[in-house]
Amino acid sequence: MKLPGSLVKSPEVTKKEKWLGYLLGPAGALLLNAVLATYLNVYYTDVLNLTPLWGGLFLTVFPIVSKIIDAITNIIMGQVIDRTRTKEGKARPWLLLSAVLVPVTGILLFTVPEGNDTVKALWVMISYNLFYSFAYTIFNMSHNLMVPLSTRDGTARGGLSVFNQITTIMMSGILVALVFPMVIMPAIGVDKSKWITLMCILSIIALPLTLMEYFFTKERVTEEKADEADNGLSFGAQLKLLFSDKYMVLMYVYFLVYTIGVTLKNLGLVYYCNYVLGTYNDGITQMLVSVIGGIPMGIGIFAVWPLAKRFGKRNVTMIGFVLYALGSLICWIFSRNLVIVLIGQFIKNIGGLPCAYVFMALFADCLDHLEWKTDMRIDGAAMSIYNIIAVAMVGIMTGVFNWMLAKAHYIAPFTATSVADASAKLAENGWAAQVALENLKPAADGVLTVAVAQPNSVNWVISFAFLGLEVFTGIALVVILFFLNVEKNLPAEQAEIKARHEAKEKEV
Question: CB under 8 Å, gap of 24 or more: what pairs does 95-98 form?
Fold first, then answer.
């Protein structure tokens, strides 16, 4: 089947390519994923009330088991990409398929039918794996390879890496950090039908935008090797090559440590703002934490790449993580002081700027070094390991977080039709409302969402998840990056790779 061609024809990276292919195109799928990263677990715990299911084991075990499946599909997808041969590249064609699959499976995540607990559990497990282990794996593998396969020009590739991250950090960040806590969450509360409507809209938006990413990207690196045969290596042999290179190993360890901290932080964000620092869906606390703390991400669009060009991507990122750990420590020590937490978040996110904007360019440098060393391009296998780390840690840390909540005796909010009904349920269970019942604002349909004051054990778990862990991961990342000096000889290595390709073309 002949695939529609790219609308990018230039041998050099164009402005249209940057803005449409790398900034706007991925926005739909990345926005959906950002919302899910913050709120899907909230939907499971607060709307579907699955925390006590099977004695707390369901939300502990199911994410971990699901991510094992996800890891397997990432391996398969990496092999499929490495063996894909089309005029449109090896990764881009799969963006077309994901454009349809991501919206459909995104909707299924939230349309959990009413019924007994077994029916709910089965639907949650199946829909979760259809989205993450199948649809989003196809999109994410293809999308993440666009920067490494776009060009060998280091400056252009760095610019694409920055544009690629603007969507995640700014566009989705504005919605998740500002609009959701201030407007959307107070409006939908724990009303399942409203959640479904909202997520259907966000899922459908991903379709036309992902198609835009396909049409406005180009795999120039793949085109260099278009006439060369598949390397024919088994996945085991590819793994051996990847893990025989110290820079690839360091890159994976770096990403593993970073992902552990970020995943637990993302899981803890809503709970921390709802119970430790503010009150449930108060419309202001989460917005302040996310937006004030996230202002540096906007500044970073203009500052990070010039600094990285002058001092090196590794060096700037390493120094950044010193600030990252310091900001996290300030927040953790004063976890209930809004002003100090906002200051700490600001410092932390200044430190996180280099990692956020230049990571994929640094990863691409490691892939170029590996190609220089082995004379082979194994992008699919390399991205498989990257994605396995990402998805495995999401599953493991989600399971760990939910297990910690269950063991600390987390109490989900509940709905009531009147203050009298709410008072009766609180008295029956020996709970205390987080906010005086007479101060609660009912939804448009008159339903009250009542949050319960959590035990101290729950508040400690939430604070450690959102603040404490990244003190330790930040320090660890400084140490890891100290040894990741892949940029030192990269220009000479890239020149040698280019000379090899030119020699092969002359032979043909």
Answer: 95/139, 95/142, 95/143, 95/210, 95/211, 95/213, 95/214, 95/217, 96/3, 96/4, 96/211, 96/214, 97/138, 98/29, 98/135, 98/136, 98/138, 98/139, 98/142, 98/210
* CA atoms of 65 and 12, how far apart (whole Å): 44
Closest by CA position to 403, among listed 3, 1, 62: 62
The listed range with the strongest mean pLDDT (130-134, 174-178, 379-383) is: 130-134
pLDDT tens per residue, range 172-198: 666 777 788 888 888 888 889 999 999
Instruction: Tell the residue number behind the tokens 């497990």, with chain if given.
Output: 125
**Encoding tokens for residue 405?**
């909540």
449: which DSSP letter? Answer: E
Given a cut of 80, is residue 499 above it in pLDDT?
Answer: yes
Helix (H, G, I), strand (E, B) or coil at 414: strand
Residue 462: pLDDT band with limits 50, 70, 90: very high
* 166 token code pair: 């603007």
Could you tell me how many helices (H) and strands (E) the chain has, helices first?
22, 2
2-36: b or e for each residue (b if 16 or more CB lie within 10 Å)? eeeebebeeeebbeebbebbbbbbbbbbbbbbbbb
